Amino acid sequence: MIKNFVICGLLSILFYSISSYESLFGESNNTEYQFLNKFGGKGSEDGQLISPHSIDIDKDGNVYVTDTGNDRIQKYNSDGKFILKWGEEGVGDGEFDKLHDVVVDPSGQYVYTLELKNHRVQKFTPDGKFILKWGFENTGGQGAERTPHQLTVDYNAYVYLTDKNAHQILKFDENGKFIQSYGSKGSTEGKFLEPHGIVFDSNNTMYVTDMKNSRVQVFDKDFNFKRQWGSFGNGSGQFSGTIPGIDYYEKEDLVFVADKRSTNFQVFDENGKFISKFGSKGKQDGQFNRPEDLAIDPEGKVFIADTGNSRIQVFGTK
After folding, report:
1. Tens digit of pLDDT for each residue in 224-281?
2. What's the burial of 50, exposed, middle or buried (CB within 10 Å: 0-12/13-18/19+)?
3. What is the pTM of this model?
4. Which residues pair with 115 in a beta bridge?
5. C-alpha dist (Å) from residue 243 to 83, 132, 220, 238
6. CA atoms within 13 A on the CB side of 42
């Protein structure tokens, strides 16, 4: 009996040692991200920001930011130098109220915005010229008021919105014609609890942050479920239940997920294998306060909307 106890004890120590080794050295051998630059800062002057909620980057490296507190879009170059701005508070064409998301289509020809209070999408040229707008009437909703929070455009120019309140994905053509909705409330495959972030890769594979289920779900272009990863918790590959932003880096097939409550960012391969994470709570370089969104530029640099600190931070690999 004593012999068996000793053997069990040795096996437990060995297992713990192996687990500790993996946790200590498995992540340290992976890609690490370091602070490179920051721009913005709280204010209303050109280049300054108040509570930026969303960010996207075009194929030339230009950066578009929803300056939510100032109800405007600001455009910067890849070094964070201010280029132009458009918008102000209001309900008219080119005006915004609770501006929440911005995305550039894959062609780089159009910029789409999403407002929470005006409940609409607006479409612009990259220099801020208004093209058209649409709302969410006659799109169903299963009895819930439509509350889209983020949008994206696939490689066939279709526009998709995550409807947080109705727990669905909405699909439109590039002119705002409603096509169909996907998903419903729940925790099984293909269902959602407050979907928020959404992005496509070049194969039109869809990645969605299913926030309250603390997971990422992946679908093909016809919304057929492919895979999922994540669970609630603080460990590597786990999420806090508040994961608003996601982006896909095509050159290396990497998926980046913003965890607002845990104030960090996690990096996965396209199949959901954890690679690394970075960030902590604070105001110093490399720290965050309620980060909402991120975007990857053509060189692989990570631009982060550090919402609570009213700034953009830029990270790169060592």
Report:
1. 999 999 999 999 999 999 999 999 999 999 999 999 999 999 999 999 999 999 999 9
2. middle
3. 0.89
4. 99, 120
5. 30, 30, 21, 10
6. 6
